[in-house]
Structures are given as C-alpha cells and as structure tokens.
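writing this on my phone so excuse typos. first protein, seq and then structure
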Amino acid sequence: MPRAIAGLAALLLAALLSAACGQPPTELNTDQAKFKKQVREILSHEEKIIAPLLAKGATPAELQKNIDQQFAQAIDAGKPLDHDLAVLSSKAVVLAWRSPDPEDLKQTYLGYIGQNYSHFKKMDPVFKKDRIAAFEVYTQYGPGFGVCAPLNQDGKLLGALCVGYDYDSLIKRHGVDKNELLAINFNE
C-alpha cells in the first residue's frame, strides 16, 4: 500500500508542476524542430559577434561592415546565407541589415537602415519582455517572417538581432509554412 500512495503522490506532484508551469510545449514536427534548432544556433552565434560590438558602441557603419563580411564569407565558402540579418538599437531602430535575394542567394541587398520598429507591436516581446518573438511581416517583396531576439549584457538591453525569411524560401528550403513557423516557441 505505501508504494501505491507514493506513486499517487508522485503523479499528483507531476500534475501540479505541469499546471504551475503552464501549457505543455507544442509538439513540433521534424521540419519545425530542425528549423527551430537552426534559428536558435544562428541567434546564438550572432549574439556572440554582435552583442560585444553594441556594448563597445560600434557605429551603424561598423555593424553593417561586419554583417556584409559575414554574407561575403558565406558566399565565398559556397554556403550563402538564406536569411536576412538585421541589428536593431535598444530603441528598435535598424542599425544594420543585409538580405539575400531569394532567387539567387549569391546576390544580396541592403535593408532599410534607420527604420523605426518601436511602434511595431509584434516586437514588444523583444523590447518589453526580454523574449524572442516570431512574426509575419509584409514587405514590398511579399510576405515574410522574422525571428528577433533581445541582445543583453549585464542586465542591460543593448538592442535586438533579427533573422528573416521570405515565405517561399521558408517553405522551399526549410519545409515550414506560415502556421508551422508561428506555432514554434523559440523561448523554450
């Protein structure tokens, strides 16, 4: 009998912990899980490069030069980047931005430097809650998706790092559609 009580107590404890922690994480399909892992690796890698530059007060030109070099090196290595890369200030203003041409990844273009996203509500989790946000955006080139993460140092928000994908690339290269991307919690 004591074994049954211990088992019941463990089951109740597990249920209470599950309820206290909120909803269980959404089960991801293989493509979603792979994409989530890849984006998290990109964000982690870029954070190690960009956060120190922001912390030392790098100018937008210095940040842009760094991003441009990353795109050029990836192309030279035969592995062009398939995502946008943007750096925003702590006030949500774009400081640097480079994008690949979805039709030819060896061709890149400069994003909209100086654009202010402080009133873009989809960025609130990044700038107000210190959370990664994934969202749909509409550009002159069509629908796209962004995943943005806060960049912090010593408890201070330095800015944000965003990776972006156009809709067709997301489906063709990653097998993830709009609903599947928006169902991913990049904070778990």
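second protein below, same order as before
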Amino acid sequence: MILYSKWLELSLTTRVKITEIFGIQKKSSTHVEDNKVVSDGYLIKDIETALNVEALQKYLKNNETDLAKLFLMLVDTIEQPLQPLPNPVIPSEVVSQIQEVIKKKRGRPKVIK
C-alpha cells in the first residue's frame, strides 16, 4: 500500500508524470490548508489500484515483489535527469574525407532544370 502522505511529498511534476504513465484520472481540485497540500485531487484508491506490484514490475521491467521498493524505483526513474549522450570521436581520416567531398561538391556548377 502506498501512503498518501508519501504520494503528496512527491513533486507536482513527478506526480503528474506518474498519473500520465499509469492513466490515473484526477477526480477533484487540489485542496490546500495552511499552505500545505492536503489533497491533490487524485484518489488514493485510484493510485493504489494503478500502482500495483504487477503494473510497476511491467513498467520498470523488474521482478522485485516489494511494492515500497518498486515505488521508490519508479520515483527514481522519473526524477533522474536525462544523461547527455557522449560526444562521438570522429577519426581524423574520416574528417579529411568529408572535407574533400565538400570541396568537390562546392566546385561543381549547379544544374538548373
């Protein structure tokens, strides 16, 4: 079972992403008391139904059976920043060949049809 207090501790961005992934519908408006979110409009029943062990295992491609661990893995997966792709190293011979092709193409007259 996922504690609603733990759900509300997540950032709005994370909660929205999770609800999009698992098709959880917002049922009411957000309720705030004393500058603290008491309810974000999602029913805990809907959250618990959607975020069951089987659904989390399928999404995470993981055979873990502990719901709390799966939930933490889900949050980590969603919140981890995207890692930039490494810059490819192009051998100097290839760069030279590309430069030669460009020089040859620039020297050709354009054919107008």
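The radius of gyration is 25 Å. thats all i got for now
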